[in-house]
Structure formats: structure tokens, C-alpha cells
Write a structure and sequence with these properties.
about 750 residues, nine-stranded mixed β-sheet, 21 helices, 19 strands
Length: about 750
């Protein structure tokens, strides 16, 4: 306790510089704690989303006892979002079973909306067709997964849903029917966020705890020479770091509270939550208030080890020992695991992520990243020593001699930025795998809309939406209700040859203006429909129904459809000119096609919703809920990248500034000898940029290997994706250039000879 009090007295009585360093440590620690709290709270936010979705899930039975409440739930795509509507026919029994967020069940004609659906109805009056009845109130937060959810409870009569409705027994399940993020995918996200944020965060907090290490070591060495014990010296140093870390943790939790309030009001793309969802839990608060000071305690004791063990060497500025090689051993071990899994990608049986591999793969990637960081001082030392012996440049010699004397400071300055590039490459691999899991197997995406739900004007508008490549009609032949069981039937596509070419993978032999058979060798034909057979199609014209008889010709188009596709298995191509101008085929569907990339699909779906809000859209082969999950996952990874960038930049700024302040005495001495200010700025720049460039190059290589290892073991279709390499290389070059510019003001212009004599 006496050593702890002594450390605090030295902290507040050692001058303005010591106090500035203390508050800088606290400010840096608060930023790190804020990022840590955000990472720890993300699973809590997702769990709150799923818990509310599970609590409102209806418990139903197929039997419909007299007087029971009937329920029918529909979840349809509205643009690129899911719109859930729950139709309720209130019975005379169990009327007290009310879902969360409502005070009572809706009566016939009453509609309870989520705030997002309320705004939608105000902005898109045409969506009224989805919500028959009058709005009677809003659904409370307890009944919604998130603030932006499209959800509605609609009161109706028993006869309208008797055919498909189910008897309501209660509300609530132990699991969410559609979790915000699938558990298997959440594991990948946790690993990615751990690499993107937690690893750089641990380094950053250690950096903050080691600010002004040289000055503190000289002060601690003086205390050791005055008779303080070795452990007492370490405890004196730890007192300052622990108090700074504790203050930083308190400030960081306050910063997170403010950030949570702001983000719940603005939201993130694809993810919004209520303030209570992101509230600090007891576990998060304990982790931050106990874990961060504990880390600072060990970092402070480790930082004072040299001063306590060899105080004379510290006071006389003895040359430090060569950096340990065990960091290189970690790097080689991690690379050995990663390269081994990458090599299996060249075989017929690549490794998977099951069994022991589930532990070895993340262990190899983490060892690679950690080994990369711990190897930087050794690489900096070896390079600096070699260049200093061979160069004839004064600037390069001064820079390399300083890096040779203090190789450990290199790690504190460049680690955050190096880890950022390494993590960015790994995050790219996660995004590639997620894209491949959810992206349709075909390069195109089809959308099927009932023709009866579109007006003539809407047909032209949806066909002209940005991203739509082609449009057509699909319809099936009419079958006589009491006809023969073997009556032939066929499905038809109403399109021109150009439209057909854009809808399918391959077509050959098409002639415009002519009815032709469609022959796909991979799909069977219609029931007994052969060349020469006549198949009727029911059309509506002028309020009257009539048959359009199509005789299957012998001329055929050889085509190959995408799978999945809205025209897969079609038997006949009918030119648009064969239909009367005002005719509407019964049961026909309007088909659009676009590219299958997620952004393009989202734009088309949103465009259709803007033109025809009430139309039921079926995106062929696409799960809208899975589509929303991808948006959430991309948002989480983007948040991780932003936090990694903030942490890396903060670590560089703090470390570079501290490094410049620590070296003021040496800079002053060299300047008094005759070195020009331009030379000293060049020295400062080279000291940082050279080891940083080497670290970034290693991060690019090791990060790409880690990404390929992740893709190989994740059974991805793409193992060696080099599309993102130029972007990462440019980002690394930009980081190096920005670092060079950032070091120039740190050399200082004012020369103070007293700095040479100050302790």
C-alpha cells in the first residue's frame, strides 16, 4: 500500500509532463474500453432481438374448436424487407391471450401496426391493400424484434381465414423462428470481430500503459538505487498505470453509453435496436472495470522489470539486449498451420472445419497475427543494425541507430496499423464466404409477380427499373375441370427471342413472331404434350374469358435455363404478337430478371415495392430473411473494420507522439551539434515508415494466407481470391504515406538546451 501511495504522489507531483501523460493514458484507455464494450454488447443486442421474436411467436393447433381464436400468419417480401402480417379472428374463448406489445386482440377491421409499418402506410398509401381495416394503434417495443420491423396484427372474421387458419393456444417459444444471425454464422462473426478488434485492442491498451516508458524507467531506477525493493519498484509503476486504466475504463463506459443512445436513434444499415438492448450488462461492466486495470497492472509490472533488476544500466542508458526470438517462433508456428491447410486446397479432398480443425484453424490464424506483431521488434532490430553498418547516409544512419537501440518502440508505433491490414484481409475472406453461401448459384436473379396484381402502367414501370435486364410472361395451359386425366398440358413463355436469350443460359434456333416449342434436355416436357397437340390457354379480354388454343409445332428451340429460374421447364414460346393487345392470361405471372449480386437484387426489389406496393413478389431462389441476415453481417463486419481503424490510428498517434516527446533530449543534442531541422524530420520519418512498410508487406502476405486458409476449410467455391489484393495494397500504401506525413511535425522547431540536463 505504501508503494501504491508513493506512485500516486510521484504521479501528481512530478510536473506537468507527468500529469499530461497520465491523462493521455486515461484518454487512450477510454477509447479502447468503449470499443471493447461495443464488441461485448453486440451478442446481447442480437439475443434481445431473437428473444422478442420468440416471445411473440404464436402457439397454434390444426384443430379448430368452436369458439376458438383463429390465426393466420403471412410473411411476404416488401422490397428487400420481410413484412409479417398476422390475421386474427377473435373467438369467445382464450381472449386473454394477448401477444407482447398489444393490450388486446384486434377486432374485425382493426389493424395494429409497428412504427415502421405506420410510416410506410403514410408514405405509400397504395400499401393499404396489404392492411385491410383501419389503424387502431401501434405495437409496443416488447412485440417487435427491432424498431425498423414491418409487422402488423389485423383483425378479421372467422369465415375469411377458416380454410387456412389455426386455433390459437398461446404465445411464445423458446427459440426465434428466424434469428437475426444464424448461430453457425455468428461463430464466424465473433472470430472475425475478435481478430479485427480484440487483438488490436489488447495491443493498444498495452501501448497506453507503456507511455513514456523511458522516462518512467529512469525515475524508477532512481527509486531502486535509493533502496526500494524490486517488487516495490514494480508496484510503484503499476500504481500509475492502474489508476489511469481505471479512470479510462470509467470514461470509456460513459462514452459507450452516449454512443449507444446516438446509434439507437440513427441506426446502422440493416441493424437497429432499442436503447435497452445495448445497455451495459453486469458482465460487460465487470470485464471493463476489472479486466482493463488488471491488464494495466501486469503491463506496468513488466515495464518496470528492467528498472528494478538493473537500475544502473537504465540510468546510464546501456544498450538494450537483442529482442527475443520466441515471437518469430509463434509466427512460424501459425504460418505452418495456415500454409498446411492452404496446401490441401490443391488436392482433391481439401480440409474442412470439423473436429480438431475447428480449433486448429482459428489457433493458426491467431498465432500468425500475434507472431507477426511480436516479430516486428526483431525484424526492426536486424534490419536497423545491418543498414546502420552499411549505409553512408547520415539520415538513414541516425534513424537506424535509434531503431537498433529501441526496437521495442517500433512495435508500439506500427502494431495497430499492421494488424488492421492483416485483419482486413481476413474480413474479406469472411465476406467472400458469406456471399457464396447466400448468392444464387445462377448469375441472374428472376422475380415472379402475379400479372393480375399489376396495372398496364405498372407493367411498363417495373420493366424499366434500373438493373432489370429482361421481362416476360409465364402461364400454364387450362385444364377442363371434368376432363380426362391424361389431358395434355404445357407451360408457356410469352417473350421475344431477344427477351428469351436474356432469360436463359443458352438458346438456339429461335425465330421472332413464330410459336415454337422449347426443348431443354435437362427437364422433362409437359404431360403428354407432343408436337401437333393443341393446348388451350385461358385469357381474359373485355371482361369475358376465352381460350387461346396453341398448337405445339415441330420447330423447336434448344435452350438451357438457369437453375433456379422462373422459365425452367417451359414447353412453348409464344410471341407477344400472338396475344390480343388487351388480353390478360389467367393465372399468368410477370417475370423480371437482373444480375444476382446482392446490391442489384436489393435495388430491384425496392424498385418493385415503390411501383407496386401491394404486389406479391417471389424472388426465385432467394430467402428474404437470409437476405436481411447478410445485411446485418456486413454491418457488423463494417463496424469491426471501423473500430479496428480507430484503434490502429489512435495507437499510432499516441505512440508516435509519445516517442517524439521521449526523444526530445536526443533530438536537441543532435541539433546543437549541427544537424538541420530538415534532416531531423527525415530521420523521424524513416524511423517509423521503414519498419511500418515492412510490417505492412508481411501483413499483406500473412493476411492473404490466413484468408485462403479460411476459405479452403470453409468449403468455399473460391480459394484464391486476388480481387481484393490491389485494394489492400493501395490501403497499405496510403497508411504508410499518411504515417510519413504524420511524423513530420513531431521533430519540433524550438530548441531547448535544458532538455539535455533534465531527468
Amino acid at each position: 500500500m505504501r508503494e501504491f501511495q508513493l506512485g500516486l504522489r510521484l504521479l501528481f507531483g512530478a510536473g506537468r509532463g507527468s500529469r499530461v501523460r497520465f491523462f493521455l493514458m486515461a484518454a487512450g484507455g477510454s477509447l479502447g474500453v468503449c470499443c471493447l464494450a461495443l464488441v461485448l454488447t453486440i451478442p446481447q443486442i442480437l439475443d434481445a432481438h431473437d428473444n422478442r421474436a420468440a416471445a411473440r411467436q404464436p402457439q397454434t393447433a390444426s384443430a379448430q374448436p368452436a369458439g376458438s381464436t383463429l390465426l393466420l400468419q403471412r410473411t411476404d417480401p416488401y422490397g428487400s424487407e420481410a413484412f409479417t402480417r398476422v390475421f386474427i379472428a377473435k373467438g369467445i374463448k382464450s381472449t386473454d391471450k394477448v401477444p407482447p406489445g398489444l393490450k388486446e386482440l384486434p377486432d374485425p377491421g382493426e389493424v395494429f401496426l409497428s412504427p415502421r409499418a405506420h410510416d410506410l402506410l403514410r408514405d405509400q398509401p397504395a400499401a393499404k391493400g396489404l392492411l385491410p381495416g383501419h389503424e387502431s394503434g401501434l405495437i409496443g417495443a416488447a412485440g417487435l424484434a427491432g424498431p425498423d420491423e414491418l409487422f402488423a396484427y389485423i383483425g378479421t372474421t372467422r369465415d375469411k381465414i377458416a380454410d387456412e387458419g389455426r386455433a390459437l393456444k398461446g404465445w411464445g417459444y423458446s427459440y426465434a423462428p428466424s434469428p437475426a444471425v444464424e448461430p453457425s454464422t455468428l461463430t464466424y462473426i465473433r472470430f472475425a470481430l475478435g481478430t479485427l478488434v480484440l487483438l488490436p485492442l489488447g495491443i493498444f491498451l498495452s501501448v497506453c500503459a507503456r507511455l513514456s516508458a523511458a522516462s518512467r524507467n529512469r525515475r524508477l531506477a532512481s527509486l531502486r538505487l535509493l533502496g526500494l525493493s524490486t517488487k516495490g519498484t514494480q508496484r510503484v509503476n503499476a500504481a500509475e498505470t492502474v489508476v489511469a486504466a481505471l479512470l479510462g475504463a470509467i470514461l470509456g463506459l460513459g462514452e459507450y453509453w452516449v454512443l449507444n443512445q446516438l446509434m439507437t436513434r440513427t441506426g446502422l444499415p440493416g441493424l437497429r435496436w432499442y436503447p435497452a438492448d445495448g445497455a451495459l450488462s453486469t458482465t460487460t461492466v465487470a470485464t471493463c472495470l476489472i479486466g482493463c486495470p488488471l491488464l494495466a497492472w501486469f503491463a506496468g509490472r513488466a515495464g518496470a522489470r528492467d528498472a528494478a533488476a538493473s537500475p544502473l544500466a537504465v540510468r546510464r542508458s546501456a544498450a538494450p539486449e537483442r529482442p527475443a526470438k520466441w515471437g518469430g517462433l509463434l509466427l512460424l508456428t501459425g504460418l505452418g498451420i495456415v500454409v498446411g491447410y492452404c496446401a490441401t486446397g490443391f488436392t482433391d479432398h481439401p480440409a474442412d472445419s470439423l473436429g480438431p480443425n475447428a480449433l486448429l484453424i482459428p489457433a493458426g490464424i491467431l498465432l500468425t497475427g500475434l507472431g507477426l506483431v511480436l516479430t516486428l521488434p526483431l525484424i526492426s532490430y536486424a534490419l536497423a543494425r545491418r543498414l546502420a553498418r552499411t549505409t553512408r547516409s547520415l539520415t538513414l544512419n541516425l534513424a537506424m541507430r535509434r531503431n537498433e537501440v529501441e526496437p521495442g518502440s517500433t512495435m508500439r508505433v506500427v502494431t495497430g496499423l499492421v494488424l488492421l491490414v492483416f485483419s482486413a484481409s481476413l474480413a474479406q475472406g469472411v465476406l467472400i464466404q458469406l456471399e457464396q453461401i447466400t448468392r444464387p448459384s445462377a448469375p441472374v436473379q428472376d422475380y415472379s409477380i402475379p400479372l393480375s396484381s399489376l396495372t398496364t402502367r405498372q407493367l411498363h414501370e417495373v420493366a424499366g427499373l434500373p438493373g432489370v435486364r429482361a421481362h416476360a410472361l409465364t402461364m400454364e395451359s387450362w385444364t377442363v375441370p371434368d376432363g380426362s386425366a391424361d389431358q395434355p398440358w404445357a407451360s408457356a413463355v410469352v417473350a421475344t427471342c431477344d427477351q428469351l436469350t436474356r432469360l436463359v443460359r443458352h438458346s438456339e434456333g429461335c425465330v421472332d413472331g413464330k410459336v415454337m416449342r422449347l426443348s431443354d434436355p435437362n427437364v422433362g416436357s409437359g404431360q403428354e404434350a407432343r408436337p401437333g397437340d393443341t393446348v388451350p390457354f385461358r385469357v381474359q379480354e373485355g371482361g369475358r374469358g376465352k381460350n387461346l388454343n396453341i398448337r405445339l409445332p415441330r420447330d423447336a428451340i434448344s435452350y438451357s435455363a438457369y437453375d433456379p429460374s422462373a422459365v425452367l421447364g417451359a414447353d412453348v414460346l409464344i410471341p407477344p404478337s400472338a396475344l390480343p393487345a388487351t388480353a390478360r392470361p389467367k393465372g399468368a405471372r410477370y417475370v423480371l430478371t437482373s444480375s444476382s449480386d446482392h446490391d442489384g437484387v436489393r435495388k430491384v426489389l425496392d424498385g418493385i415495392a415503390a411501383v407496386a406496393p401491394t404486389a406479391e413478389v417471389e424472388p426465385i431462389g432467394v430467402n428474404i430473411e437470409g437476405f436481411q441476415q447478410i445485411a446485418v453481417l456486413k454491418t457488423l463486419l463494417a463496424v469491426g473494420m471501423i473500430m479496428g481503424l480507430v484503434i490502429g490510428t489512435a495507437a499510432f498517434v499516441v505512440s508516435a507522439t509519445d516517442r517524439a516527446v521521449e526523444r526530445r533530449a536526443q533530438v536537441t543534442a543532435i541539433t546543437l551539434i549541427g544537424a538541420r531541422a530538415r534532416t531531423m524530420r527525415a530521420v523521424q520519418c524513416v524511423q517509423v515508415v521503414l519498419p511500418l512498410s515492412i510490417g505492412l508487406a508481411l501483413a499483406l502476405v500473412t493476411g492473404k494466407l490466413a484468408e485462403s486458409c479460411y476459405l479452403v476449410t470453409g468449403e468455399s467455391e473460391t480459394y484464391w481470391d486476388f480481387a481484393g489484393v490491389p485494394v489492400l495494397a493501395l490501403a497499405a500504401a496510403g497508411v504508410a504515406a499518411a504515417s510519413a506525413v504524420g511524423t513530420l511535425p513531431l521533430a519540433g522547431r524550438r530548441i531547448d538546451a535544458e532538455l539535455i540536463r533534465r531527468d
